[in-house]
Design brief:
The chain has eight helices and eleven strands. By secondary structure, the chain is α/β, with parallel strands linked by helices. It folds into two domains: about 35 residues; about 220 residues, PAC-like subunit (Rossmann fold, 3-Layer(aba) Sandwich), CATH 3.40.50. The relative contact order is 0.17.
């Protein structure tokens, strides 16, 4: 007959699996600008893989570490570059950020005080398989040598918190006075402006008035300018891009140097190729290629 402790563990595991299945069934689209019924495939797959690890660690009575919140402006140098993904279709932008953090081995800095705006999430370190560190839905990573700050979002924004989150984010960005803000975003492929050339154009871009790059710079990188004039009026909101257009307008009006990289993609369980394309565009634009190590995939991408 199984021991009492084993029965309790099995009940915990069954309950957690049931909770994950319920999340998959109930969570829909929180993007008010997107009519697609998204199932947050990236977050769900991440939860599944993480829970398998958690079960092993819990059974081994592993002690987990949860970092405290920090005042980010006190932890980083002035004039930093800030990279952030939009919570958008396919979650390819978050995956591109995963690639950046993993390939450059950007150290974890702290949790971001915005978890109240996201679907709650607690998971093990997604970049170091043997780590006992826990991370939440919103995390910050910082490289002191590159003076590079990165935010990563691992779940979807709660619909009723969307406006509040964008306002808080733009106010914080304005106050930080970054050297440059780079926003990675995706949009729904059926609404791309020039479908006949889509195969040859991987990533589009938008520049704020104060952006450090010019159209000529971006043309040299073989990126194509996104212009809302190319689209019918009803499609100018960049369907599926989450808070991209709202944040762009607010930061552009506030004279913040901002570059947006946009990848058109479909909603599917595997958008890794889109993430890699966006990552490569970011590297070509922002870094010396010779200084970037070989592409390193997060272990959480394992199938």
């Amino acid at each position: 007959m199984p021991s009492a402790s084993k029965i309790v563990r099995n009940k915990m595991i069954k309950q957690q699996n049931d909770n994950v299945k319920e999340m998959q069934a109930q969570v829909g689209d929180n993007d008010e600008s997107d009519s697609t019924n998204r199932k947050i495939a990236y977050a769900y797959a991440f939860v599944q893989l993480t829970w398998r690890r958690l079960k092993v660690l819990l059974l081994n009575k592993t002690t987990f570490e949860i970092e405290a919140y920090k005042m980010i402006d006190k932890e980083i140098k002035s004039n930093a570059v800030f990279i952030i993904p939009s919570v958008s279709v396919g979650f390819a932008s978050q995956q591109a950020v995963d690639l950046l953090i993993c390939t450059l081995d950007i150290p974890f800095l702290c949790h971001v005080n915005a978890s109240d705006c996201f679907i709650p999430m607690l998971t093990t370190d997604p970049y170091h398989k043997d780590s006992t560190k826990m991370v939440t839905a919103c995390s910050a990573y910082y490289s002191e040598t590159r003076n590079l700050l990165i935010f990563q979002f691992r779940s979807d924004i709660l619909a009723h918190k969307r406006v509040e989150f964008v306002e808080r984010l733009q106010e914080w960005i304005i106050g930080m006075k970054f050297q440059e803000v780079i926003l990675l975003s995706t949009a729904w492929a059926p609404f791309r402006p020039d479908p006949e050339t889509y195969i040859n154009v991987d990533v589009y871009y938008m520049l704020s008035k104060e952006a450090s790059k010019t159209d000529d710079d971006m043309k040299t990188l073989r990126l194509k300018k996104f212009d809302t004039k190319m689209l019918p009026k009803e499609e100018q909101k960049l369907t599926g891009s989450g808070f991209t257009m709202e944040l762009f307008k607010k930061l552009d009006d506030a004279n913040v140097p901002l570059i947006v990289l946009i990848r058109y993609c479909d909603e599917s369980m595997d958008n890794r190729s889109d993430a890699i394309a966006q990552f490569e565009a970011l590297v070509a634009m922002q870094f010396e290629r010779s200084e970037i190590p070989e592409l390193r995939l997060p272990y959480t991408w394992e199938r």
